[in-house]
Design goal:
The chain is α+β, with helices and mostly antiparallel strands and 140 residues long. 22% of the residues lie in helices and 37% in strands.
Length: 140
């Protein structure tokens, strides 16, 4: 059974300053750092729901990325302060979909957009249906 889309915008925002090690020779953020930032955004989104990846893993539930995409709109440069907005798009007992938006500190300039689909799996990597309670806690 497919999950229902989240009706209200359910999101979390984290702040980040771009460090030198995240940039390329041109002083612009190297593309792989967006994936790391998405992971941080997703982790903090879930933590904000009083759930943690660590506690899920202790319960034998893992949440690997099954699908990812990123659209780069404008370069982010060294020492910029950015805001990473993580939005819950959809969740059910098998998977969860997030959207990520990368903004300047005033949230006036959108630098990029990303999406992930993460699948709930057990310790062997086999898809696992999680409890309705966990889904509702993340959705709330």
């Amino acid at each position: 059974m497919e999950g229902r889309a989240v009706e209200m915008e359910n999101y979390n925002i984290i702040d980040h300053r771009v460090y030198y090690n995240e940039t390329d020779q041109m002083g612009r953020v190297y593309h792989s750092n967006y994936v790391i930032w998405m992971e941080k955004g997703r982790t903090e989104f879930i933590r904000n729901k009083e759930v943690s990846y660590k506690s899920m893993e202790e319960d034998g539930i893992f949440l690997p990325v099954a699908d990812i995409d990123i659209k780069f709109l404008k370069a982010i440069e060294y020492d910029m302060e950015i805001r990473i907005k993580t939005i819950l798009v959809d969740i059910n007992r098998i998977k969860v979909k997030f959207r990520y938006e990368f903004y300047d500190k005033d949230m006036e300039t959108l630098f990029g957009i990303g999406n992930t689909t993460n699948i709930f799996v057990d310790t062997d990597g086999i898809p696992k249906r999680v409890s309705k309670e966990l889904v509702e806690k993340i959705r709330s």
